[in-house]
Amino acid sequence: MDSHHDCLFRAARDGYRWDEVTHAPYKRDGSAPFKDISRQVLFQEPTMGCELRYFEMDAAGYSTLERHEHAHAVMILRGHGRCLLGDTVRAVKPLDLVTIPAWTWHQFRASSDQPMGFLCMVNQTRDRPVLPNAQELAALRANPAVAAFLDGS
Amino acid sequence: MDSHHDCLFRAARDGYRWDEVTHAPYKRDGSAPFKDISRQVLFQEPTMGCELRYFEMDAAGYSTLERHEHAHAVMILRGHGRCLLGDTVRAVKPLDLVTIPAWTWHQFRASSDQPMGFLCMVNQTRDRPVLPNAQELAALRANPAVAAFLDGS
């Protein structure tokens, strides 16, 4: 049994943490516009084509507005909030499923009163996310519903 | 937007069902020893290396005792029960993580009082499961804890 299999059973702890799983708060570095979000990689098996991660935002937190070639398969696990996908804004709740296709702008925002967490399945081999430039951001904001979402209102 | 992307948002319904997701109860055909289990494929995207499925057993139900080359990455989502993995039996609860490596015997059993459901990430391309022959079953049952698990006691 190799080192990847040392922990075949990893128990859930209180507060959406897990034994043997590193809790990684994202650091603000000024370049990526996210707020109060953390990542935990739940499964990263060399023989599997995908990884499964758990992201959690504090109340009023949000993920980076970005897009990329690789797809995301998301299941909301905790809390409530909204999701921007392309030019659509939708309320999301626990167990809802969101498919994020290639090159589609997306961002998650937790409600103001509680954290929101979601599972995200993604290919192990993937391209780097791209942030919107000024022109792309202006095009997104031309839609009033999208502008309100991006303003957190 | 192609046909795979017709439903980017799929809402969770009550009872661990989802919009646009087919609920598939496993049929007993006498050859595979499982009991009261259903499958729902949550994500099956052509560009992704894996699928994400939700399996649910009724109270006292169980999955097939099997093994295969491909790995499983499992997160318990609902209820309580036990998991056999190799020669280990462990109690599992919501959000617990189970890694099922290649060629490892495994089976899930729900507690007697409520359903148990779990997410299972798996490679899209995979081999067929193999059931234990009489000799392998005897070897498993040589361990009293495993025998008690297999007997549902």
Query: Secondary-structure element sequence of chain A?
Result: EEEEEEEEEEEEHH
The largest contact between protein chains, plus residue counts on each side, is: A-B, 45 and 44 residues
Q: What is the overall number of helices of chain A? A: 2
| Subunit organisation of the chains | homodimer
**Structural class computed from helices and strand pairing of chain A:** mainly beta
What is the spatial order of strands in the main beta sheet of chain A?
4-5-6-12-7-10
Residues in helices of chain A, as a percent range: under 10%
Strand content of chain A: 35-45%
What does this structure look like?
Two copies of one chain form a homodimer. Chain A is mainly beta and about 150 residues long. Chain A is built from two helices and twelve strands. Chain A has helices at about 135-140, 145-150, and strands at about 10, 10-15, 15-20, 25, 35-45, 50-60, 70-80, 80-85, 90, 95-100, 105-110, 115-125. Chain A has a six-stranded antiparallel beta sheet, with no helix packed on it. In chain A, β2 (about 10-15) and β3 form a beta hairpin. The longest helix of chain A has 8 residues, at about 135-140. Chain A starts with 8 loop residues before the first strand and ends with a helix.
